[in-house]
Amino acid sequence: MMICIAVLANSLNAQEKKEAKKLEELKIKTSSQCSMCKETIEKAMAFEKGVKTFDLDVKTKVLTVTYNPVKTTPEKIRLAVSKVGYDADDVIADQKAYDKLSPCCKKGGHK
Ligand SMILES: [Cu+2]
Is residue 36 one of the residues assigned to a domain? Predict the structure, then answer.
């Protein structure tokens, strides 16, 4: 049984390494303000097709994602961020989604 698990873990690792080679990294400047924004944006990334890893640095407001360029594009990822109410580089936040954000999450909510 132990051997089975070890073999399985190894093959999963190999799979991940193979996929990692194809991934590209993208940094997006967002209009996030706090840890709630981080949650919202990261949740959106979790559901975004082709996005492998994501991390929003609340201090710098920079969202770092790794994505599979076969499955998605930087434009699509920026659009996904704007759809939940945040600016993503030069893509302006979707107004309806932005209006629904908590006051603290709006631009200038925290300075
Ligand atoms: Cu916030």
Answer: yes
